[in-house]
Amino acid sequence: MRLLVFAVLSVALMVVDARFALLQPLRAQLGLIAEPVYWVGRLPVRLWEGATQGLSSRSELAAENEKLKAEQLMMQRRLQKLAALTEQNVRLRELLNSAALVDDEVLATELIGIDPNPFTQRILIDKGGKDGVVLGQPVLDARGLMGQVVEVMPYSSRVLLLTDTTHSIPIQVNRNGLRAIASGTGNPERLELRHVADTADIKEGDLLVSSGLGQRFPAGYPVATVTEVIHDSGQPFAIVRAMPTASLNRSRYMLLVFTDPRTPEQRASDSAEAQEALDREILQQAGTPAVAPTPAPAPTPQPEAAH
Amino acid sequence: MAVRANNIWVVWLTLGLALLLSVSSMPRFMEVGRPLWLALFLTFWVLALPHRVGMTTAWGLGILADVLNGSLLGQNALMLTLITFLVLTLHQRLRMFPMWQQSSVLLVVFGLAQLVQLWLNALSGSRPPTLMFVLPALVSALLWPWICVILRGLQQRLGVN
Asked: Could you tell me which of B84, B94, B112, B158 has the fewest CB atoms within 10 Å of its CB?
């Protein structure tokens, strides 16, 4: 009898939880207890890492320091180049009258737990609703996109990784802009591209970047590199496998991206207005009567031109 | 109940420990065989103190596990209630069995619970591709004698009732 009561109760709860958002706040509050439990659960790992760090010898540390310095130098060099490239990019975009490339704001976060269910690819991070995390927010590590937030609790949140079987992300081949959708396979080192035509120009080693078409992930972040392309004449589409650039099962520190909430159209019209205001200012400063009679400067940016 | 509760906190402590173990980090390749710690500990206390630990405890614990795992609320609760029900109905007989026989009965019980879990998972979209889902039940059944001995020692030492 009691089994029946509890079973009905459980099933009712599951249905409500799956179909309606009614239990969301309750879950969020109950999630408060999850964090300390995960913290204690990861304690052995932390202790082990602490011990290996504490016991690593001075020479090892020196070597690592040396390596990091070399790496930093390399990065600096690239950064110098990047500054020039960014400048150039902005100028070219101005020429094209398209929306300015805005730098996304990020928030650093740390991994605090891994989902115990081996058939899902989810992790727990230490930032939550109190830090401004929102549902669907993209998460990335130093090398590329990792996934998106699927559950927000007050001080922690759950992230669904790119490789989960229920996850797909719209991508573009960086080399030629070919669009496709990369779906997770449940294997943390493999993504599969769905419905890629047999004749599509895609080959091993191609870098796949997010295309931003799903309006969920920001455009232009690296997602994966193609590892194999199989053309099977018995299959309607080519089989394309890729490996995520982010180290999905190794990264400890991640970044939460706060993308601009404006739509591309709004962004375009905003930047167009700014450009117009600037033009007007320049005209006023020049103040020559020869230019004044012209009703409007010729290259007035049109918001629609962004497309 | 005529018998006064004695040292009942031990039950809660061990169940808390089981909850902790069920989310503690493990090497990736071992995760498919993660023992059903909650089910194991709960089964022991249900067998030892059926008048204290019952389906209400199991259900509450299951809800906590659901929150921790981020699964649908009620999924683990249903599973643990089912296990407790089966163990409660079998408990007169189960207590008489030798250890290996207890283990084999529990293998069936846990396997059944895992099957229910699999169905529920399939309903909510994620389905494991292989027969791997019975592995936890097997590992748990193999662990049962050890858990039983340890917890019984604890129970007798502290006179938990």
From this structure: B158
Q: If you count them, how many residues does chain B have?
A: 161
**Beta carbons within 8 Å of A83's beta carbon, 6+ residues apart:** none
Question: Do residues B9 and B55 lie in contact, with contact meaning Cβ atoms separated by under 8 Å?
Answer: no
Token readout for A298 is: 């010729």
- Tell me which residue in B28, B78, B121 faces A249 most closely, judged by beta carbons: B28
The interface predicted TM-score (ipTM) is 0.71
pLDDT single digits (tens) A182-220: 999 888 899 999 899 988 899 999 999 998 888 888 888
- Nearest-CB residue to A10 (from B22, B67, B77): B77
The torsion angles phi and psi of A49, rounded to 5 degrees, stand at: -65, -40
Q: Say what the pTM is.
A: 0.71
The string of pLDDT tens digits covering residues B99-129 is 889 999 999 999 999 888 888 877 776 666 6
Residues 6+ away with beta carbon under 8 Å from A97: A272, A275, A301, A302, A305, A306
Residues B22, A116: C-beta atoms closer than 8 Å: yes
Amino acid at A184: G
| Residue from A10, A151, A165 to probe the interface with B (highest B Cβ count within 10 Å) | A10
Per cent of chain A over pLDDT 70 is 86
Measure Cα distances from A178 to A167, A293, B64 in Å.
20, 47, 46
CB burial of residue A189 (10 Å; 0-12, 13-18, 19+) = middle
